[in-house]
Amino acid sequence: MAEIAHDFSPLIRVYNDGRIERLMGEGLVPAESDPETGVHIKDVEIDPEINLSARLYLPKNVDPVQKIPLFVYFHGGAFVIESASSPTYHKHLNMVAAEANVVIVSVNYRLAPEYPLPIAYEDSWAALRWVTAHGNGDGHERWLKDHADFNRVYFGGDSAGGNIAHHIAIRVGLEKLESLKLDGIFLACPFFWGKDPIDGEAENLGVKNFIEKLWLFVNPNSSGLDDPLINPEKDQKLSSLGCKKVLVYVAGKDPLRYRGFYYKEALEKSGWPGTVEFVEIKDEEHVFHLFAPTAEKAMGVLKILVSFLNQS
Prior knowledge:
Blueprint (H helix, E strand, L loop, with lengths): L3 E5 L3 E4 L4 E3 L17 E8 L4 E7 L9 E7 L12 H14 L2 E6 L10 H15 L8 H6 E11 L1 H16 L6 E7 L16 H14 L26 E7 L5 H14 L4 E7 L6 H4 L4 H14 L3
Parallel strand pairs: 6-7, 6-8, 8-9, 9-10, 10-11
Antiparallel strand pairs: 1-2, 2-3, 4-5, 5-7
Helix pairs in contact: 1-8, 2-4
């Protein structure tokens, strides 16, 4: 019987014989119109050679003339679990599409350890380039060509997806994509950390040890927890963030919450000219809004996000 080589329960285990056991995030929801919201859903291939795809959401009764904001979403899961078609995201993104009246592209990037970082970032950038092709008329996806306003684009993501959204926004700032105007990014309980403990982190060194081992597992060539990919405060390019506003939400019982506030402070000190809105939801766990999307506090998060996506 194979022994466990890496145990990151409750996320993933890897055995000495190479077998990978994902312990959650494996379910799939079919790409069918949602009966509750009327939101239309479909899956699209972006690059079949590397199995890069996305799930698209289009609100019902969308105006054939008036274009609506585009929300590019990156799912979480510590870079090792979940997918764009996971039940974890189905209800939440349906509600966002319906309530905010936005087109959503949820990116299905490849996961570690089979595809270690920086592949998730590279896939996400490739997906964004595919999206932006529709802004200059080159793409073939009708939902994007007919309905997406490429002058009102937002990125979003939870946990590891929040980390990805941040870094893709940095790259947008550096490379200045002509056919896309990024207005803002929404980071839900973003997966950031650092070598030196801040605020209350020193009280729970077990979490730090877990995150450090997990980070080096998904990114074996990393320098560690002060790698700019996990610690934005160490990134000399931080002020290049390619949008004018950021919304960060953290949960009061989440060990990552200190890093969310630290990210806000680092952005403000970096010379970046935008504004950061920071929201803490008391007495809740990491990304609770995904697991109980209709709960009162989760609906509060949704309301804040909808407002953010509809600012001119």
